[in-house]
Sequence to fold (391 residues):
Amino acid sequence: MKRVVVGLSGGVDSSVAAYLLKEQGYEVIGMFMKNWHDTVGVLQGDCPFDDDRNFAEMVARKLKIPFEYVDLSDEYRKRVVDYMFDEYAKGRTPNPDILCNREIKFDAFMKAALSLNVDYVATGHYCRKEEIVVNGKTYYRLLAGLDPNKDQSYFLCQLNQSQLEKALFPIGHLQKPEVRRIAAELNLASADRKDSQGICFVGKVDLPVFLQQKLTAKSGNIIEVDKNYYTNITNPSSDDLSALAKPITYNQKDGEVIGKHQGAQFFTIGQRKGLNIGGKAEPMFVISTDIESNIVYTGMGQEHPGLFRKGLFINSSEVHWVRPDRALKNGESIELLARIRYRQPLQEATLHCRENGIYIIFKNPQRGVTAGQFAAWYDNDELIGSGVIAE
Fold:
């Protein structure tokens, strides 16, 4: 009998994953990981670690499976939270959920689970895995979940083949309502629990307060750039990849001061909340930040030209191929689908591999391309690679 550890989070998805694996004949062990203790900046009532372990234990008892506990808070702080602080300090916007999966769930946690002499490690992610043989070698395909509203393949875009080999995703073929129905019929304690939100294992936070643990608040100007500014900008040619992927940079003369902020590092491209600018015909959005000068540049309206870019660039050191056999060689290009954030509909794009990295040029300009975030690219419903947006 194959043995599997299920990462029991206390939520409904991992609970049903454990049940389905038991029904399929696996010897199932539930394991809960504690990754965070601090409450600084965490909104009251939104600390997911308060009750999660109790719910996970109740589910394990109900399913009559062994329950294990592991504290990975030191690894989480070093490999996820410290990375977050470092990225925000540079004026970039990291994605801690993707880092958490790569560094914690499918590395530190997976190692702890495999030490129990099991064959697989399962999670409640809405995605699927398949095997394919290419030139006599087996590769593992990471496929989108069948529920289009819950597909979480993007969050796993940094996994490698050795991690996928040991991973199981038991609910990837199900719709979320079906998962809740199964949990309700089994009277699982987690059946009606809300989905977790906010930073992985930390919860919903007041981001400036959370970041001020290490980043100092400092007053600076908010500058509005008028839409007419862009009439004098020459659009790059379609074969100038570097220009197409480069963000517009601004200086103080390109707009007028309309307010103050408490730190440019606390803002991200496309952000609306926190600017506290009133009296405008349309909402204001962040279009750029200058960390060195501590300036936040903004534009009025959701269709402001400063919010859109045709392309992006990923340094060669940050390019990751989930399917290494599909990796592009220098000079090659391929038409694929890509997204730059969770739940964004897949966008038509062309990947161009050059010696210094990969350029992704979209068929249509994309809103809110942000340095530090991850771009992931797909061939139909298979996620084949990803990388960190350079600027």
Summary: Residues 3-124+170-206 form a domain with the Rossmann fold fold (CATH 3.40.50.620). Confidence is low (pLDDT under 50) at residues 41-47. The chain has eight helices and 18 strands. The CA atoms of residues 4 and 337 lie 33 Å apart.
